[in-house]
Design goal:
Layout: H1 3-13, E1 21-22, H2 23-29, H3 36-45, E2 57-58, H4 72-81, E3 86-87, E4 90-91, H5 93-96
Parallel strand pairs: 1-2
Antiparallel strand pairs: 3-4
Helix pairs in contact: 2-3
The structure holds a DNA duplex (13 and 13 nucleotides).
DNA sequence: AACCTGACTTCGG
DNA sequence: TCCGAAGCCAGGT
């Protein structure tokens, strides 16, 4: 596996419970400013997906991109179970976006 | 190598 | 706020 992919995996693993990150955010943090689709690809194809908090990655609008019937409801349920609140199908990124600044 | 395909994002109307 | 179009980029055919 290539280095950036590994970085992306590590970043996703670092998203804390009750917080979310966008595909684009993870991509930027991994050094791929326009690599949002690559983040999505890795989530979709990686056999390691089962070991990742994949449900904490959402789109730039604060919504769930995974189609209903293909994990969409599950993703929302998992997030809600962590205390993330949805309003009109979206989460408030101001409130729930992961900000890995303090305490590492 | 050309072409297609996304768990995306941004911009303009 | 809600689409549609265009941009993006790596992996699959």
């Amino acid at each position: 596996m290539e280095g950036t992919s590994r970085r992306i995996i590590e970043l996703i693993r670092a998203i804390p419970r009750g917080r979310v990150a966008t595909y684009g955010q993870i991509a930027r943090m991994a050094g791929l400013p326009r690599g949002a689709r690559q983040v999505a690809r890795i989530l979709h194809s990686s056999s390691r997906t089962r070991r990742l908090p994949w449900h904490r990655v959402i789109n730039a609008s604060g919504g769930i991109s995974l189609a209903p019937g293909y994990g969409g409801e599950l993703q929302r349920a998992l997030l809600e179970k962590e205390g993330v609140v949805f309003l009109r199908g979206r989460v408030n990124l101001r409130r729930y976006a992961w900000r890995p600044t303090l305490t590492g």
